[in-house]
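Tutorial, part two.
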Amino acid sequence: MENKLETLTNLFEGKEIRSIWDSEKEDYYFSVVDVIAALTGSLNPRNYWNMLKTRLTNEGSELYTNCVQLKMKSNKDGKNYLTDTLDTEGVFRLIESVPSSNAEHLNYG
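Running the prediction step on this input gives:
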C-alpha cells in the first residue's frame, strides 16, 4: 500500500487531487475527475470522464461500477457535491485506461 501511495504521489506531484481517507477500509478514495485532469491536461475533464465511462462500459470494464460517489468540496464554489471516486486500486486501473505520457513510466509496485 505504501509503495502504491508513493507512486500516486509522484505521478500527481503539483496537481490537486481531492481524496478522502476511509478508515474502515484503510484506503483512500480519489476524485476521478481530478485524476483525469492531472493525466490528460483536459480543459473539460468531466466530459472526458463521461466519454471514458461509456467506452469502458461498452468494452465490459467494471471500472465505472467500482466507482463510489462521495461528497467532496468543489474547487469552484467551495460547496460539497457527490463526486465519482475510486480507491487506490481503481485509480491504477483508471490510469491504465487513459492514454497519457504522464503515466507511461510508472512503477506500479
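The helical segments are 2-11, 32-40, 45-58, 88-97. In part three we will examine how such features are distributed along the chain.
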